[in-house]
Amino acid sequence: MRVLLMSTPVSTHFAPSIPLGWALRAAGHDVLVAGQPDIVGTAHGAGLCTAVVGEWFDALEPLTSGLPEGKRPIEVGHTRVRDGHWDDVNKIWLIHCRYMVSQYLALAREWKPDLIVADPLEFSALLVGGVLGIPVVNRRWGVDPAGFPGQEMAARTMGTMLGRLGLDGLPRPALVLDPCPPSLQVPEAPAGQGMRYVPFNGSGSLPDWAGDKPFGRRRVCVTFGRLTAALNGLPLVRTVAEAGGALDDVELVLTLEREFQDELGPVPDNVRVVDPAPLNLFLGTCDAVVHHGGAGSTLTASAFGLPQLVLPGITDTFVVADRVVGIGVGRALDEAETQNDPEQVRAALRALLDDPGHVTAAAKLRDEMAAMPTPAQLVPALEELAG
Fold first, then answer.
1. N or C: which end of the chain has fewer CB within 10 A?
2. Could you give the C-alpha distances from 216 to 213, 248, 249, 266, 289, in angstroms and in order?
């Protein structure tokens, strides 16, 4: 079987497909990742072969365009999606599809896949599958309030493009794979086939410091991903470091790209600033996680059964924060004023660590995830789908 993995040009959108790609390869199938240069490095780092389609997209540019110097998106108030209105966020992927679909069609005609797997906002996958008669599987990346509204918008507005391709309407996916445990997923998301989240946070070596946990201190991992720092987020990182520094019984492990570490400046003695490393290598030594609401950070922390403090900043991360709080797994500060106040961050950290209910809820979520079928267990279903 030949499987084409497609993705919007954002590495974190693509990463949840990687364990499924491994499972398909281990079962003897050919797997090819088709995408723009933005995701090629991630695919190669995971040992998957690629076909480069199109030019660099740079998803950071739309987020930084018009952003005042030194301000985070949350501080200018235009990144929170209220009342479920996702069209303004998703229309960029509609425009993206118009430019990319012909190139993906050409590749698929040449490579002749039996099955296509793509994230829900890569609308080109549905069009390619519809034109060529290839079943398409959508694979969510985590808590997903945006994917199904995006496809509804595409179905409403793609009439001219669909007609030009000989399609009566936007084809529907043959199957939706969902790595998010049902209790954490947004209730309005259409039901999908659960697939256990297998953490992939890049490749790397076990950090030397991982086993060096100070006696009598609880370890809290702070991970905001590269995007937060790039979006003027170093003041937030400093605030969290200051807040953690006031907790004598806590060691804060703060992951930050080396290029930003000098600019961060000095931190309290109980804050360890480290280069990014795969979270799955050291979260087993941690007692809690502070993160930005990204899908990878959220699901990896959940897979380890850790309480979470979410400090969201853009679009769907606010929904992630709501879901984490809603099921009791953690806490959130979702306003710029509270995120910028070390005392409020410190109080949220203290409450996160001292409330045993969060530990119980996090363990329950971990067990729920562990009971979901693995990517390898779902390969036969994909084989049957592809015929």
1. C
2. 9, 10, 7, 24, 18
Instruction: Give every CB contact of residue 216 below 8 A, 6+ residues apart in sequence.
Output: 249
State the burial class of residue 139 (Cβ atoms within 10 Å of its Cβ: 0-12, 13-18, 19+). Answer: buried
Q: Within 10 A of 351 (CB to CB), how many other CB atoms are there?
A: 14
Q: Is the pLDDT of residue 360 over 70?
A: yes
Q: What single letter denotes the amino acid at residue 247?
A: L
Reported confidence tier of residue 6, pLDDT bands at 50, 70, 90: very high
CA–CA distances in Å: residue 98 to residues 23, 103, 122, 159, 317? 32, 10, 11, 12, 27
Residue 78's pLDDT is what?
58
Nearest to 315 by CA among 344, 345, 294: 294
Q: What does residue 115 show for φ and ψ, rounded to 5 degrees?
A: -155, 145
pTM across the whole model: 0.95
Q: Is the pLDDT of residue 83 over 60?
A: no
C-alpha 110/C-alpha 22 separation (Å) is 23
Token pair, residue 249, equals: 């019984």
Half-sphere exposure of 138 (CA within 13 A, CB side): 24
SS (H, E, C) the chain: CEEEEECCCCHHHHHHHHHHHHHHHHCCCEEEEEECHHHHHHHHHCCCCEEECCCCCCCHHHHHCCCCCCCCHHHHCCCCCCCCCCHHHHHHHHHHHHHHHHHHHHHHHHHCCCEEEECCCCHHHHHHHHHHCCCEEEECCCCCCCHHHHHHHHHHHCHHHHHHCCCCCCCCCCEEEECCCCCCCCCCCCCCEECCCCCCCCCCCCCCCCCCCCCCCEEEEEECHHHHHHCCCHHHHHHHHHHHHCCCCEEEEEECCHHHHHHHCCCCCCEEEECCCCHHHCHHHCCEEEECCCHHHHHHHHHCCCCEEECCCCCCHHHHHHHHHHCCCEEECCCHHHHCCHHHHHHHHHHHHHCHHHHHHHHHHHHHHHCCCCHHHHHHHHHHHHC
